[in-house]
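ok so for the tutorial part 2 we go from a plain amino acid sequence to predicted structure tokens. step 1 is just haveing the sequence, like this:
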Amino acid sequence: MDFSRPIDDRAESFKQIGDVAKVIAERHCGVMIDSPTHRRWQETMAVLREVDTYADDYASNDDDVLKLLDKGMLDDRYPLLSEENLGRETKQRMLERTERILKIGRAVQSAASVDDFISLRIQEGAETALYLSDTATNFVYNQAAFRHAFEPTMRSMAVTANLLDSMTDGPMDYRDGRMALRPNGEYYQQLFRSTFAEAGLGSKALLHLPVMKEFATMSWHRLHNRLIVGKSATSSMNIFK
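step 2 — the prediction. this is what the tokens look like for a chain of 241 residues:
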């Protein structure tokens, strides 16, 4: 596979999630964000899109995915996430988190009960949100508001996004063999209840006007990118086919 080209053409637009995270931190949670953290967050959101697509569609095992990050195969596109820039300790922390998320993902696919499925999806979202903590500079991370306000808010948003994805993508994932659990009435009822329970802090952030504006800008740019590039095999728009 040619890693000099994007694995997923949506990756560039996902950088704007890093912009949304910055606005939430600064305008909603009262955290000062420095330029290195902001730029790392942009690259983190993009690389996660590529890694997720690679894991789902191309990798033969988890080791392949971890090598993608550990061997610097994406460093040309995401230099701020290279071991040289992050340091080995931070890079190792990201690799260990990625390994945990991959294991959770496999468990999600084989979950036999709705309770287990939802619990795993919540764990998956919570772990994903912590990439922002992994890549924040000490100046940002050591602010009390980062840990007490920002981290819980981003956990809420990431978990809620995961649960909403399960609502929209469940039938397609079941059809494609990516989950053993067949979506039914109980599946949607419990997902709705769990989404409502988890969404509190995240929804408050999204209703904050500066965050709402940034989120709207991100949504427009992602739609514009899709109209320009067209629908790919990895596009979420395939749910409508």
